[in-house]
């Protein structure tokens, strides 16, 4: 089996309006919510969008060794428009934060699971909308971390 190295990683849930961000501890065991960023939808190809610039700042601030971006694959395993958009976002992010790698991972159902878990904890309505993107980023990063550990046993 391969070797999974520890290190702080960011998990990212890219939405049309917001970007949820999670962070894990230096031992890469537990993902926790970090922040929700507003998407910068300006179309200037030259300028770095403010959400990507803020992600780059967070990578540096936390000393992240990798960024894990959730890829919204549909239940049939097909890459639809959302997945194509997310791939483009991840590529732009990778250009900005190089040499820190950006990894895409299947995020199927992450928002559904995050919404259900928040509801079970009594977080609903506006309060839920404010944190669901972070919770989805936690699901994405935690699932990825758990899978990496399973692969290296």
Description of the molecule:
It is found in: Cytoplasm. Belongs to the YqgF HJR family. This is Putative pre-16S rRNA nuclease. The protein has 153 residues and is of the alpha/beta class. The protein has one domain (9-151): YqgF/RNase H-like domain (Nucleotidyltransferase, domain 5, 2-Layer Sandwich). The chain contains 4 helices and 5 strands. The protein has a 5-stranded mixed sheet with strand order 3-2-1-4-5, with helices on both faces. The radius of gyration is 15 Å and the shape is globular.
Q: What layout of secondary structure does this protein have?
A:
Layout lengths: L8 E6 L3 E7 L6 E8 L11 H13 L3 E6 L9 H17 L4 E5 L3 H11 L4 H27 L2
Parallel strand pairs: 1-4, 4-5
Antiparallel strand pairs: 1-2, 2-3
Assembly state (oligomeric): single chain
Distance between the termini: 7 Å
As for the CATH topology, it is Nucleotidyltransferase, domain 5
User: What's the gyration radius in Å?
Assistant: 15 Å
- Specify the CATH architecture: 2-Layer Sandwich
Principal-axis shape equals globular
What is the helix fraction of residues, given as a range?
Answer: 40-55%
Number of strands: 5
Assess the beta-strand content as a share of residues.
15-25%
Q: Helical region count?
A: 4
Order of helices and strands: EEEHEHEHH
Q: What is the CATH class?
A: Alpha Beta
Helix and strand content put the structural class at: alpha/beta
Instruction: Name the CATH superfamily assignment.
Output: YqgF/RNase H-like domain
Strand order of the largest sheet: 3-2-1-4-5
Count of structural domains? 1
Low-confidence stretches: none
Largest sheet: 5 strands, mixed
Mean pLDDT: 86
